[in-house]
Amino acid sequence: MKVPLSWLRDFVDIEVSIEELARKLTLAGLEVEEIRYVGLPIAHAETKVTGLAWDPEKIVVGEILEVMPHPNADRLVLTRLNDGKQEHTVLTGAPNLLGLKDSGPLETPIKVAYAKEGSQIYDGKQAGWELMTLKPVKIRGVDSSSMACSEKELGISDDHSGIIVLDDDAQPGTPLTDYMGDVVLDIDMLPNIARNANILGVARETAAQLGVPLKEPPYDVSWEGPSVDGQVSLDIQEPELNPRFVLGLIEDVNISPSPFWVQRRLHLAGMRPINNVVDTTNYVMLEIGQPLHAFDYDVLVERARGGSPTIITRLPEPGETIATLDGVERQLDDFTILVADTAGALSIGGVMGGGESEVGDSTKRVLLEGAGWDFINIRKTVAAQKLSSEAAYRFERGVHPAMAERGVRRGLEMMGELTGGSVNEGLIDKYPRPPVAPTVEITQSDIQRWLGIELELTEAAAMLERLEFSTEIDRSRLRVSPPDHRLDIGAGVVGKADVMEELARLYGYDRIPETQIADRIPPQYSNPRLEAGSQLRDLLASMGLQEVVTYRLTSPAREAKALASQGTEDRDYIRLANPIGEDRIVLRQDLLASVLEVVARNLRIRERVAVFEIGPVFLPIKGEQLPEESDRLAIAMRGPLNPLTWQGREPSKMDFYDMTGVVDGVLAGLHVGNIQYEPAAHATFHPGQCARILVDGRTLGITGVVHPLVAERFESPDTAIVAAEMDLGALFEWIPERYPVRPVPAFPPVLEDLAFVVDQKTPSERLRILIHETGEPLVVGVSVFDLYQGEQVGQGKKSLAFSIVYQADDRTLTDEEVATVRGKIVNRLEKELGAKLRDF
Amino acid sequence: MQEHLDKLEEQALAELNQVSEAEELRNWKVRHLGRSAEVGKVLEGVRDLPSEDRPAVGRRANEVKSQLENAYAAKEEALRGQELERSIAEEKLDVTLPGLSPARGRIHPSTQTMRQIIRIWAEMGFQVYRSREVETDEYNFGLLNFPPHHPARDMQDSFYTTDPEVILRTHTSPGQIRVMRERAPEPIRVVLPGMCYRHEQITARSEIQFNQIEGLAVGYQITMADLKGTLSAFARRFFGQDVRTRFRGSYFPFTEPSAELDIECFVCSGEGCTVCKRTGWLEILGSGMVHPTVLENGGYDPSVFSGFAFGMGPERITMLKHGIEDIRYFWANDLRFLEQF
Fold it and tell me: Which of A467, A590, B263, B323 is the most exposed place for a label (fewest CB within 10 A)?
C-alpha cells in the first residue's frame, strides 16, 4: 500500500519527522518497507529510502506565456516561460504543447514544473530511474539549459508522455518542493490489518500512535438534482453474500481528465488516472477503502427499454457468462455473485465490471454503486476466476458494509466537483444484514496475564477509543466494541486476544518490558534418539566423512538408478498431487540413492568423496493416513583413502574393508558390540562384495561395494564406490545405557604373531573367533594383521597372520603357560579348519 | 726410548690433526691406540728394560697413551659435532610446502546452526520435540487457526499428496498441536526443529524444502513481556551480548499478538547496507502469544493457560552470518561449499 504523505495529512496532523512516523508505524505492525521521496528533502531512516529531493532554488513553478515554433524542427517548440523572476525561452518537445505553437500569447498561462540549469532530475528518456543534471546544450541550433518537466523527470510516476500541467493555484517562482513536494510510504499490509489498506486507515493508526485527533473526511453531499427515488430500484436476492447495496445518481457530467492534484495522488498511490469519473471511484477507494463502481445510467435505461432500471444482485443462471472489462468472456461458478439488471449480468459483484455499462467519453449520467460483499465468497471467486482487481483485493480481506454508504456519499460529492455534474437527492440503500459488533470484556488482570504490563482500565479504554472502539467500564471490567469500519474483532476469548493485540500495538511493543518466565521449568524428558543422532554425526565426521543433506523429494526413476537388477515398481510411494517438476514427484524411500547422487555430482570436481546423510525415508503404512518416517544413515565413499598430496605417493583406493572399517568404528563409538557381517544380496551392491550388518543376529543394515552397473550410472565406471545404509531405529536400540570399563592390567602382556595357511574360502573371522575362544581366558585380543595369497602358500590357499595378546590379571605369564595355550590353538585350528601353522 | 716416545706422540697427534672423517678416525685409532699400536708395544716392552729405566719409560709411555686417548676423544667429539651440523644443514625443509592433513569430515552447515540454536534453548529449559514431516491438513492449518480461505492454504504454497487431506508440512507449527495434545495439562517448554516444505520455484532466494526451528512455552503465567525477555536473551546468546533487538507488530494466524524480532544488522552495525536492505535491522524470528483457539485445540484452557511461540530458519540465519547469497547451496551438497564450514 503506497501512502502519499500529503494525502495522509488531509486526515491527521503529523508533527514528527517522516522517519519517526515510519518507525512508529513499523513497530505497530504497519511495516514501512520503503520511503520514497518525491520532492521533499531526504533524511536517513531505519527503512529503505529512495527517490529524489527537488532543489528549492532550481526547481520551481513556472508559467508558459506563449508557445512558439522551433526554427528548425516541427516536433519541438519554444516557449516564453516566466519563472517568477524573469522570462526565459525554453525548448520542449512535449506533445501536449505542440498544438499551441501558432496561437500567439496564451490567454491563460500554462503552469508547469520548471527545472533550471544545474537541476538534478531523472532522465525521462531512459528506462528505470537514472539521475541527470541539466547542462547547457544546443538542440537543432537552439540553446537549451532548462526544461519544463514530465512526471517521470520528477519521480512522480513513470509517465513521460508530456509535461506536467499544474493546477491554476500554482504561483510562479514557488519552489516546487513547497508546492507539491511529497513522500510516499510503502506499507506492507498484513492480513490482520488489511482494514487499513487505505489512506484513512493509515491516518487513523497514525493518529492513534501519535496521540493526536483524526480528522475524519466529511461525508456530506451537495444535493442539487431531483430525488433519486423512482429512477432506479434495487433487489438483493442473496443477502448473506451481499449484505448491503447503495446507489446514487449524478446528472450532467462532463467526462474529462482530472485536475493535476488528483492525477498526482493517484499516480503516487500506484494507480493510473483515466478520467474524472473513474478517477473518483479509484480516489475514494484509495482514500477510505470502499471500492465503488460507476455505471453509465443511460445504458441501463436503454437495457430497461426506456423504463427505470432495476439493479438485481443474484447468483448466476446455469450456463450464464459475462464479458468483463478485461475483455474475457467468463464462465461463472454457481457461487459467483452478480450485479445484474432485468436484461442480464452487468458485473461480477465486488470483483470486476462488465464492458457494456462502462462509463465512456459520452456518458452523461452516472449511477454510482457502493456495496458490501461476503469476503470468503469474493476470495473463492477470485481463486476460481483467476481474476483480481483493486476492488477484489479489498473485498476479499473484509470491508465493513457501513463503508458502502460513506463511499457513495464521498464519491458523489467529489464527482460533482470534478465533472460539474449535479447529484440527485438521496440514496437508494438496502442493508438487509448489518453485522453485529461483538462486545469483548477484559479485566486488568487479563492485561497483566497476557501482556505483562500494569495498565489501568481507564488507560486501556482511552487507548482503544483512539481506534474508535466504544468502551464502558463496569467496576473491574472493561467492555469494548469495535467501530463500524472493522470486521476483524472476534467474540469470547478470541475477541480478548484481538483486543490484547490492539492494546499491545497502542501501548507500544517497545514499551513492553523484558522479563523471564516466572513459572517453574516444566517436567523434563530424556531425548536419547536426538543425543545418539548427534553423537553419530560427530563420529562419522571424526572419521573423515562430510555430512550432506539432500532433497526428500525424488522420483521412482531416480531411485531405480541405484538398483542394478530391478526397478522401483514394487515401492508404494507417497506421491505429490502438485509436484514442481518430473524429477521430484514422490517422497524418498532410498536414502542411499540420494547420497549416491551427491557422490556423482562431486566426482566432476574431485577424485575423492566420502559423505553421509542422516534423515528420514517415508514408508506408507497399510490402513494409516500418514506414513512411517523412518530415520536412516547412508554412507558412500569413493576414491583414494587419503587426499592426494604433493608427495606424490599414490594412496590406495577405498574398498570393502574401508567401508566395514567405518561401520565398525561407528558401532564401536556407540558401544554397540557383537557385530557380525554375513554375505548378502542386494540390488545396489556387488553380489560378491556385499554384507548384511548384524548385531546379535539382528539386521542393522547393509554394506558393500556398489554394483559396477550402479557405479557407472553414478559417474564412477572405473573406481569402486563403497556404501552402507543402516536403520537408525534398529541401531539406537542397541546403544547400551551403560558400558563397563576394564581396569588397566598391572602385569605385562605377552604379544605373539601367528600365521596360518588355510583354504582361500575360509572366512578370516572364523579363525579369529576360534583363536579367541580356544585361548580364553588368557587370550584377550586377536586381530588380523596380514593376508597373503601366492606361490609360497600354494594354489587355493591363503595365509592369515594374527597378532595375539595373552594377558593375566594377577601375574606375569610364563613362556610355558603361553606355549600351552598356543599349542591348543594350533591343534584346534588344524583339526577344525585344516589350518597349518606357518613358519617364518 | 724417551725420544722415540716423543716422536711417536708428535707424529700421532700430527696425523690426528689431518683426520676429517669418522672412517679415518677409526683407522687412526687402530694405528695408534689399537692392539698392535706402537705405544702398546712400548708399554709391553717396559718389563724387558733395565730396571732403572723402567719407571721413567713406563710413566712417559702411559702419559703418551692417555694423551693420545684424550686427543682421540676430543677429535671424536669435534667430528660428531661437524657431522650433526652437516646433517642439520642438509635436512633444511621448505616450510612453505603444504601440510599433509588427514581426511577431515564436517557437519552440514544447517545442522551446525541448528545445534547451536538447540544448545542455547536447552540451557533455557527448552527441550527438543521432534514431530513428523508429512502431516494432515488439519494439523498443518485447521488446528492452527488458519481461517478456511486463508491465502497460506492456497495450492501454490503447499505440496499436496494424492490423498487431499495429507500434505507436506509448510512449517514446524503442527508440532505445537502434537506436543500439546501429548503433554496437556502439563506446562511445556520445547523447541521443534525440522524440515518444512513449500511449493515454490527453486531460486537463489526460495527453496522447496528448508529447516525451521520453532519454540513453544505454555504455562500458567506466561506473558508477552516474558516472550520479549526470553527471545532477547536468545538473541544475545546467539548474536552477541551487545546486540540491539526490536520487536514490531506482525501477523501469524496461530499467535496473537504477534511480533517480529529484528536484530541490529551485524554487517553494518545499523548504518544500513545491502544485507539489511538499508534498514539497519535484520529480521530474525517471528513470534507471538499462542492464540487461544490453538491452546484450546491443544487441550489447554486459555482462561488458565497462556504461552508464546516463535520460529526461525537456520538456513536464513546461516546465510546472514556468512554472507551467503544463494540458498540453493544448502541442498546442492557441493563439497566446495560444505567444506568451508
Answer: B323
Q: Which of A548, A620, A614 is nearest to B134 (CA)?
A: A620
Check whether A643 has a pLDDT greater than 80: no
Range B291-309 average pLDDT: 96
| pLDDT confidence band for B33 (50 / 70 / 90) | confident
CB-CB under 8 Å, B100 with A645: yes
Q: Any CB–CB contact under 8 A between B258 and chain A?
A: yes
A199 to chain B, any CB pair closer than 8 A? The answer is: no
pLDDT at B58: 85
pLDDT of residue B151: 60
How big is the A-B interface in CB pairs under 8 Å?
A: 262
Q: Is residue B101 very low, low, confident or very high in pLDDT (cuts 50, 70, 90)?
A: confident
Q: CB pairs under 8 A, 24+ apart, for B11-20?
A: B12/B68, B12/B71, B13/B67, B13/B68, B13/B71, B16/B68, B16/B71, B16/B72, B16/B75, B19/B75, B19/B79, B20/B79
pLDDT digits (tens, 9 = 90+) for A288-340: 999 999 999 999 999 999 999 999 999 999 999 999 888 889 999 999 999 99
Q: Report the side by side order of strands in the sheet with A698-706.
A: A546-547, A609-619, A628-638, A721-727, A698-706, A685-695, A675-679
Which residues in chain A touch residue B229, judged by CB atoms under 8 angstroms apart? 513-517
Asked if residues A837 and A826 have their Cβ atoms less than 8 Å apart, the reply is: yes
Question: Which among A450, A530, A626 has the least Cβ separation from residue B134?
Answer: A626
Instruction: Tell which B residues from 278 to 297 touch A, by Cβ distance under 8 Å.
Output: 278-281, 289, 291-293, 296
CA distance B41 to chain A (A): 50
B178 CA to chain A: closest CA distance, Å?
14
Q: Please tell me which of the candidates B134, B160, B233 has its beta carbon nearest to residue A587.
A: B134
Cβ distance of A618 and B98 shorter than 8 Å: no
pLDDT in tens, A190-223: 888 888 999 999 999 999 999 999 999 989 999 9
Query: Which B residues in the span 82-111 are in contact with A, Cβ-Cβ below 8 Å?
Result: 97-98, 100-108, 110-111
Q: Phi-psi category of B172—alpha, beta or left, where left has phi over 0 and alpha has psi -120 to 50?
A: alpha
Q: What ipTM describes this predicted complex?
A: 0.88
Question: Looking at beta carbons, which residues of chain A come within 8 Å of B230?
Answer: 516-517
Summarize pLDDT for A723-774 with one digit per residue, the tens. Answer: 999 999 999 999 998 999 988 989 999 999 999 999 999 999 899 999 999 9
Is A578 in contact with B257 (Cβ distance < 8 A)?
A: no
Could you say which of B135, B151, B208 has the minimum Cβ distance to residue A553?
B208
Cβ pair B223:A515 closer than 8 A:
yes
Rounded Cα gap, residues B193 and B131, in angstroms: 8
Tens digit of each residue's pLDDT (9 = 90 or more) over A1-40? 999 999 999 999 999 999 999 999 999 999 999 999 999 9
Side-chain-side CA neighbours of A455 within 13 Å: the count stands at: 29
Contact A514 B232 (CB under 8 A): yes
Residue A544 to residue B102, Cβ atoms within 8 A: yes
Q: What is the greatest pairwise CA distance in chain B?
A: 134
Helix, strand, coil percentages, rounded to 5, for chain B: 45, 20, 35
**Sheet containing A836-837: which strands, arranged edge to edge?**
A779-788, A797-806, A750-759, A836-837
